[in-house]
Amino acid sequence: xxxxxxxxxxxxxxxxxxxxxxxxxxxxxxxxxxxxxxxxxxxxxxxxxxxxxxxxxxxxxxxxxxxxxxxxxxxxxxxxxxxxxxxxxxxxxxxxxxxxxxxxxxxxxxxxxxxxxxxxxxxxxxxxxxxxxxxxxxxxxxxxxxxxxxxxxxxxxxxxxxxxxxxxxxxxxxxxxxxxxxxxxxxxxxxxxxxxxxxxxxxxxxxxxxxxxxxxxxxxxxxxxxxxxxxxxxxxxxxxxxxxxxxxxxxxxxxxxxxxxxxxxxxxxxxxxxxxxxxxxxxxxxxxxxxxxxxxxxxxxxxxxxxxxxxxxxxxxxxxxxxxxxxxxxxxxxxxxxxxxxxxxxxxxxxxxxxxxxxxxxxxxxxxxxxxxxxxxxxxxxxxxxxxxxxxxxxxxxxxxxxxxxxxxxxxxxxxxxxxxxxxxxxxxxxxxxxxxxxxxxxxxxxxxxxxxxxxxxxxxxxxxxxxxxxxxxxxxxxxxxxxxxxxxxxxxxxxxxxxxxxxxxxxxxxxxxxxxxxxxxxxxxxxxxxxxxxxxxxxxxxxxxxxxxxxxxxxxxxxxxxxxxxxxxxxxxxxxxxxxxxxxxxxxxxxxxxxxxxxxxxxxxxxxxxxxxxxxxxxxxxxxxxxxxxxxxxxxxxxxxxxxxxxxxx
Length: 651
Ligand code: 6R9
What we know:
- By secondary structure, this protein is α/β, with parallel strands linked by helices.
- The chain has two domains: about 15-335 and about 415-505, 3-Layer(aba) Sandwich (Rossmann fold); about 525-645, ANL, C-terminal domain (GMP Synthetase, Chain A, domain 3).
- About 30% of the residues lie in helices and about 25% in strands.
- It is built from 21 helices and 33 strands.
- The radius of gyration is 24 Å and the shape is globular.
- The structure holds ligand 6R9.
- Ligand 6R9 binds near residues 392, 503 and 518.
């Protein structure tokens, strides 16, 4: 690819000629399809819905309303089963094709699972769940490492109509317990242990600890992974490998309505309580499938690797549902990018001849710091398309990814989306979209983004504002589990009649979108979404802490780091030991991803006369930017600011 400057002096990478010809969608196709999807959503999605296999064909397509009670329904009279779409329908032609490649944390371990084998595993798993008493509509919590059984567990739930709630294996027992209770989950699936970077994670023991505060939990199914000895509750706990021997490898799928729930996935919002984002069967699966197909330009036989964890939405949509619905080969990696060495990603790409690779900017920034040599040790010529997700990618990391990993040949699809959107929303298509480093470029089919100013006025043309989506798309979340009111409040009340994303965004004169980051109290640490309120409530739960305020600050590798202002109870002196203890405390309460980077003890916090903490000021101080503190005259005690600045400078 050659570089050229546009009139805005932005670096632009045109679509490579070969891709413009060979990709399933070129620039003209994109224009035509996008137009059609906006002019006639009903007609467009009526046709696209045919990508899936329906038991009862739908006659209704779009029935959505963003006003009042907010109701979102797609294909509402159609019926289907997600596991059939991901497995059974491929069997006539692809029973011997590889569905999943599993690469262990230990580089000596890997194996492949064909679509035929996947069918048998999932059916067995489904039969085990049925024997335990799991029924359609029941919520099943999955607290698992990155092993094939996790995919079987999710698809087994889908097969019998149970609603899975995957909880990231890095979450603490406490965080897990909250999520089990929130969705009233009576069933849980876990493994004896997980392994990452050679270290064991005691998943079963964590689950046992969580279970102590979850009286509603009836049964636990444990997969044996490392063989470690674990605690056991007779009558409640079952080993999967024992139960699987007693069941058949066929299981009739349960026919689901398109709007029956497929899964719940908890995500952080502006308040302390995680939100159970609910996705349904038809629209979600269609969205995961069509975006995976177009955005990665997936060609039959290609090896596709999404390096996310299934505990996050990226893993749901782009390790499991999207690729498998498309009959693709999806690689699942148990480990971390830097173990046993910093070249692990590149080693895996070479080992499995990966064609399409999808990862997060935080991983790229960490690997970039190791220089080019670890990448250059490996033959990466199999790579064709690169992807990025989870946070804004800084142009420096983009250019490194493009030049060093992709050797200048591979387009980078910078995909903007959210747990709530189900799949990609603003993204390049490799054969259609010229790239600008740092821009997620243009909307996918059916997506109507808009920018609004503080007054809620729509901004036309180039400009910056808050990003909203003005009409529904099939992959959209339908509600927050058990709390539709909060769903309306969170997403549809700021700018009535539109879906508010929580992100700030710029649009340039070419109509390209540039996501600038969250505008609410959500921070993005290494691509993990976290509510500052969650960290605050963990801190104030400590018996020595009187008050806490948490903000994000720019971090070279993580994107954002966690900066905590802490006021201790009267009479207590801050110490390094206490700072360490608080860091551990938060880590134990939420999980390692929430470990604070800075604890800044302060005798008081900057508050307005009405008692509101002025986070704007705290953010600026954490950023080490003392020049633009703005108006501090409304503070009850303006001198607090000076003492905070002093506290910051000595760190
Ligand atoms: C898929 C996922 C969503 C938030 C989102 C935004 C940020 C995701 C991005 C991006 C800039 C991208 N985000 N992708 N920002 N460019 N390509 O990450 O879902 O965990 O729900 O996070 O992540 O701020 O609002 P989720």
